[in-house]
């Protein structure tokens, strides 16, 4: 009996030791899960813009600028204990595809939207975001309708403000006496700028000697418009259009022998790359209103430009990259002002908090010092740039 009892006790000892070892092995796994749960929460930011197609340079620049800002913020500890994540979707500058991208981002758990990049898609998405009460901050959607709802704000100047600003600059600096215009009557961006430019030009006693329109379906041959402008005696051609059409106009004007100055708005940013190295000289002297120039000598611009070049194979940031960068830092400032610390907050509750915060913050961005009112429009000072030796220089 003693032997039997001893054997039973030995078996019990082995079993107890085995179970104890098993529990010991489970502890690190439980601890590890606890450590993962204790890591910083992530706030998902959505982004939408053209990454392919004819307007891809705008969307890619915004995406790259925004991602650079996200990386910097996360490296510095995040925002109120939260890390940021950017999920940027391609809409090919198409309104329907932009709405599809928005819906996909909502399904992925997007809390707020940086976008969209271009105006027509932004107007379509803005309606969806307003219905869902999702905070929308467009870096570069300049049409008035982009931010007509209470949940929407923008970084760039609106189309009307660009048209007014361009006319004011030309008048105040005596850039030209006789002005011609080529604009896209089928595009909300171009039409909006032209209408305000035309009205402000009259107020400033500027003489518009020719105003020639084209549409999306006739955006390759500008010979008729350019001949009329040449016959008008204009000494400046105002181009409130995107860089793709502007590049064609410069090429065709050169062949026609049209000798005028050229002035545009932020849509011309990218025209040097569009022309290519063999034709870049055609852009020499082109002037434009834009809130950013990579070769400006202020510390903030130089720091951003150096960081962007380091991150993206020595690429030089455009105004669109700067808009994307400033958009992320604006969101950061608004989150901090609102005191948001819970990454699981609903998109609607976050929207309500950020809308209140936006009118109380000041952001000293690379596109200028900005404040906002309830309209969603930024208050900042435009800058005039000129293309010189293949780069943008302050005027």
CATH homologous superfamily title of the largest domain: Response regulator
Percent helix range: 40-55%
Which architecture of the largest domain per CATH?
A: 3-Layer(aba) Sandwich
Total domain units = 2
* Order of SSEs: HEHEHEHEEHEHEHEHEHEHHHEEEEE
Question: How many helical stretches?
Answer: 12
- Show unreliable segments: 1-39
What is the CATH class of the largest domain?
Alpha Beta
The count of β-strands is 15
**Measured distance between first and last alpha carbons:** 105 Å
Based on CA atoms alone, the radius of gyration comes out at: 27 Å
Name the overall outline.
Answer: globular
Strand content is 15-25%
In the sheet with the most strands, the strands line up as 7-6-8-9-10-14-15
Largest sheet: 7 strands, mixed
| Helix-and-strand structural type | alpha/beta
> Please, what is the average pLDDT?
89
* CATH third-tier fold name of the largest domain: Rossmann fold
TL;DR of this structure?
With 395 residues, the protein is of the alpha/beta class. It has two domains: 42-157 and 297-381, 3-Layer(aba) Sandwich (Rossmann fold), CATH 3.40.50.2300; 160-290, Rossmann fold. It has twelve helices and 15 strands.
Features:
2 domains, 7-stranded mixed beta sheet, single chain, 395 residues, globular, Rossmann fold, disordered N terminus, 5-stranded parallel beta sheet, alpha/beta, 48% helix
Describe the 3D structure:
This protein is of the alpha/beta class. The chain folds into 2 domains: 42-157 and 297-381, Rossmann fold, CATH 3.40.50.2300; 160-290, Response regulator (Rossmann fold, 3-Layer(aba) Sandwich), CATH 3.40.50.2300. It has 12 helices and 15 strands. It has helices at residues 2-38, 56-75, 95-108, 119-132, 159-172, 188-203, 223-232, 243-256, 271-275, 299-311, 319-338, 347-358; strands at residues 41-49, 82-90, 112-115, 135-138, 152-154, 178-184, 207-214, 236-239, 261-264, 287-290, 363-365, 368-372, 378-379, 383-388, 391-394. The strands form 3 sheets. A 7-stranded mixed sheet has the order 7-6-8-9-10-14-15, with helices on both faces. Strand 14 and strand 15 (391-394) form a beta hairpin.
């Amino acid at each position: 009996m003693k032997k039997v009892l001893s054997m039973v006790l030995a078996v019990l000892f082995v079993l107890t030791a085995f179970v104890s070892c098993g529990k010991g092995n489970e502890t690190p796994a439980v601890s590890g899960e606890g450590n993962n749960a204790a890591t910083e929460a992530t706030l998902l930011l959505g982004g939408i813009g053209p990454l392919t197609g004819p307007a891809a340079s705008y969307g890619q620049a915004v995406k790259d600028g925004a991602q650079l800002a996200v990386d910097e913020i996360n490296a510095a500890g995040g925002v109120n204990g939260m890390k940021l994540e950017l999920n940027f979707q391609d809409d090919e500058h198409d309104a329907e595809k932009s709405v599809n991208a928005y819906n996909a981002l909502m399904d992925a758990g997007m809390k707020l939207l940086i976008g969209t990049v271009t105006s027509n898609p932004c107007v379509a998405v803005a309606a969806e975001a307003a219905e869902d009460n999702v905070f929308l901050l467009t870096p570069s959607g300049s049409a008035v309708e982009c931010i007509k709802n209470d949940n929407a704000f923008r970084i760039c100047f609106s189309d009307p403000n660009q048209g007014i600003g361009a006319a004011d600059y030309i008048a105040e600096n005596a850039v030209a006496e006789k002005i011609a215009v080529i604009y896209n009557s089928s595009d909300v961006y171009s039409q909006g700028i032209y209408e305000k430019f035309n009205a402000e030009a009259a107020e400033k006693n500027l003489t518009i000697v020719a105003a020639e329109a084209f549409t999306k379906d006739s955006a390759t041959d500008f010979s008729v418009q350019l001949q009329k402008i040449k016959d008008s005696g204009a000494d400046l051609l105002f181009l409130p259009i995107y860089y793709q059409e502007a590049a064609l106009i410069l090429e065709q004007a050169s062949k026609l022998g049209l000798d005028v100055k050229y002035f545009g708005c932020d849509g011309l940013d990218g025209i040097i790359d569009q022309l290519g190295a063999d034709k870049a000289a055609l852009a020499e002297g082109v002037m434009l209103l834009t809130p950013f120039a990579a070769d400006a000598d202020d510390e903030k611009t130089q720091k951003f430009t150096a960081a962007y070049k380091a991150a993206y194979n020595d690429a030089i940031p455009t105004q669109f990259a700067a808009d994307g960068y400033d958009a992320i830092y604006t969101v950061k400032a608004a989150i901090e002002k609102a005191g948001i610390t819970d990454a699981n907050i609903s998109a609607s509750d976050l929207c309500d908090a950020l809308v209140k915060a936006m009118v109380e913050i000041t952001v000293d961005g690379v596109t200028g010092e900005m404040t906002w009112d309830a309209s969603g429009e930024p208050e900042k000072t435009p800058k005039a740039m000129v293309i010189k030796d293949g780069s943008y220089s302050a005027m």
